[in-house]
Design goal:
Elements: E1 2-3, E2 14-20, E3 24-28, E4 32-39, E5 41-46, E6 49-54, E7 58-61, E8 67-71, E9 76-82, H1 88-93, E10 97-99, E11 103-104, H2 108-121, H3 126-143, E12 146-148, H4 153-167, H5 174-181, H6 185-196, H7 200-217, H8 222-228, H9 234-245, E13 265-266, H10 268-271
Parallel strand pairs: 1-3
Antiparallel strand pairs: 2-9, 2-13, 3-8, 4-7, 4-9, 5-6, 5-8, 7-11, 10-12
């Protein structure tokens, strides 16, 4: 479980990806996430609710909702991540509310227009992007019943994840986050351990390891990468790295195999065969 900081707090942000047999661990981020199933079946898990998606289903994960994906049968899907300001009117309308389900239906002509415009032809500006997304957001509002969004454990986890994603290169503790989020540190520790299933220190180190690996890929030395990523010493970096990957940073050459395990394939050329 992790907070995906690459999809948070970036103005006018949007990315479109094509996936085959999508598998993604529990995570959350501040952006919206629109999923369009092209073929096959997949499971989507959102805030404790598990649902099966099959073509031509669509699903919308709202801001700061915990979610995950699991492949059920060979499948293909488009995942479109975008910030709330891209669809500001929709974002304002949803304030304090959530759908009873993330899954919604979309007329074939609208779905195909969206996919063709944004993923095949690619020649679009800001107004076209907004227009296509608003078409699908309208279908979401027509299909899904809204209800008040309850303050829950998910909101607390969002606060923890957001803080760690911003401060992981610094010395941080749960006490620091408790003060930031306005909770008792012991309560925070109990909620975190129960929800995430790993020790807080290992969770923080996972961010530091990703950062250090990126720096090593870009040609940084081990000492430089370790200190820049927030490890107090090269010795602690080597120890944590070996515990996680069963070898030290110096024992492997950093190539593309060390990029994110969640390999994302840009959709454009691949989708031409499907739309």
């Amino acid at each position: 479980m992790f907070y995906q900081h690459s999809n948070a707090n970036i103005k006018n942000h949007h990315d479109i990806y094509y996936y085959e047999n999508l598998e993604f661990a529990k995570h959350m981020h501040h952006d919206y996430e629109l999923v369009t199933v092209l073929s096959g079946e997949m499971e989507i898990w959102v805030d404790g609710q598990s649902l099966i998606l099959s073509a031509p289903d669509c699903a919308l994960v709202l801001s700061d909702q915990m979610h995950a994906y699991r492949c059920i049968s060979p499948s293909a899907s488009v995942v479109h991540v975008f910030s709330g300001d891209v669809v500001s009117g929709f974002h304002q309308k949803l304030a304090g509310q959530t759908g009873i389900t993330p899954v919604f239906s979309c007329p074939e002509e609208i779905r195909n227009f969206y996919l063709d415009t944004l993923t095949v032809r690619r020649d679009f500006g800001d107004y076209t992007l907004k227009g296509c997304l608003y078409l699908l957001m309208e279908q979401y509002l027509r299909s899904v019943v809204l209800q008040p969004r309850k303050t829950s454990q998910t909101d607390l986890l969002a606060c923890i994840f957001a803080y760690v994603s911003t401060h992981y290169t610094e010395p941080i503790t749960l006490d620091d986050i408790a003060k930031e989020c306005g909770y008792n540190a012991h309560y925070l520790s109990r909620i975190f351990s129960s929800a995430v299933g790993i020790h807080f220190r290992r969770f923080v180190n996972s961010y530091r390891l990703d950062h250090a690996r990126m720096l090593l890929q870009e040609g940084a030395g081990v000492t430089e990468a370790a200190l820049a990523a927030g490890f107090g010493s090269v010795r602690s970096f080597n120890r944590v790295f070996a515990e996680e990957y069963s070898h030290t940073p110096r024992e492997r050459t950093f190539t593309d195999e060390y990029r994110e395990d969640r390999v994302r394939i840009l959709i454009y050329d691949s989708l031409k065969k499907r739309v």
